[in-house]
Design brief:
290 residues; alpha+beta; D-Maltodextrin-Binding Protein, domain 2; Alpha-Beta Plaits; five-stranded mixed beta sheet; 9 helices; 18 strands; 28% helix
Length: 290
């Protein structure tokens, strides 16, 4: 059995939804201190701040953890980076650690930041390394939240995590540089990953989670097609997909099944109907394991 640390806070809702869709639902007790997953491969489950998880996984308190790449780098945790999940607090996609100043500043590039500027951030180690590479001496102030609100009254520069930059702009700030792109990822304790039994369990859990991520972009289309329309319908299907074709009993019709990108369905279905397909069904997919 393996132990798992899941993130609390901004990544919590998306992570719990992912586990639920993977049939690994996290069930909580009355006080929420000791959640559980009813799966024979999983023993202990804890929900912790994502900032803490990489180090706890490195130290062996947990075999597996989910956190952001930003916190793996910030804590310099020696863990096995198993798989990227590419979701954030609002859904799919990555986030960025950026450098921003107040809009009133005549600064449009990080290289223009004045030496010894006051920099506030939740990422002091990443920030120290970044400005060190640039050769710009700065005064670092560790922020414990609402970093964007401290510029320009208390601080000159903010290094912050953002998805779209909207919150920074609303607070009168402008982005002048990007330090790194981050995403949610699965990390493992290195010793656990080398243990054959635990590695098997880890890889099976990762397969289920990645199967859900993959399925979110796809749907299954099924349809019946008269023999005379087969060539036209097949030509209308996405070129990179190989459909499953079987003849219907007793009539000159074929059944076609194929997986297609969800984003193209609204235009594809009318085209298939026009090409001669009938009884078209769009079926959601819960997991795709390739």
């Amino acid at each position: 059995m393996i132990s798992i640390a899941l993130p609390k806070g901004s990544l919590e809702a998306q992570t719990l939804q992912l586990f639920k869709e993977a049939d690994l639902e996290v069930r909580r007790g009355e006080r929420d201190y000791n959640p559980r997953i009813d799966d024979a491969r999983i023993g202990k489950v804890k929900i912790l701040r994502p900032q803490e998880i990489p180090k706890y996984v490195e130290m062996g308190y947990f075999d597996l953890g989910i956190s952001g790449l930003d916190w793996v780098k910030e804590t310099a945790a020696r863990v096995r980076e198993v798989s990227a999940l590419h979701y954030s607090k609002t859904g799919e996609g990555n986030v960025k650690i950026v450098v921003a100043v107040h809009q009133s500043e005549d600064i449009n590039d990080v290289g223009q930041i004045r030496p010894n500027s006051r920099v506030t951030t939740e990422y002091p180690e990443i920030t120290r390394e970044y400005f060190g590479r640039l050769g710009i001496p700065v005064e670092l102030f560790h922020s414990y939240g609402a970093s964007e609100a401290k510029v320009p009254d208390l601080m000159d520069v903010v290094v912050d995590l953002t998805e779209t930059g909207t919150t920074l702009r609303k607070n009168g700030l402008k982005i002048i540089g990007q330090i790194m792109e981050s995403y949610t990822m699965i990390i493992a304790n290195r010793e656990s990953f080398e243990d054959p039994g635990k590695r098997k369990a880890i890889e099976e859990i990762v397969t289920l989670l990645q199967g859900v991520i993959e399925a979110r972009h796809q749907v299954l289309l099924t349809m019946n097609v008269p023999e005379k329309s087969m060539d036209v319908v097949i030509a209308a299907l996405p070129a990179l997909k190989t459909p499953t074709v079987s003849r219907l009993h007793g009539i000159d019709y074929y059944s076609i099944q194929t997986v297609v990108d969800k984003g193209m369905v609204n235009t594809l279905i009318p085209n298939l109907k026009a090409a001669g397909a009938v009884d078209i069904l769009e079926i959601p997919i819960t997991k795709i394991v390739r």
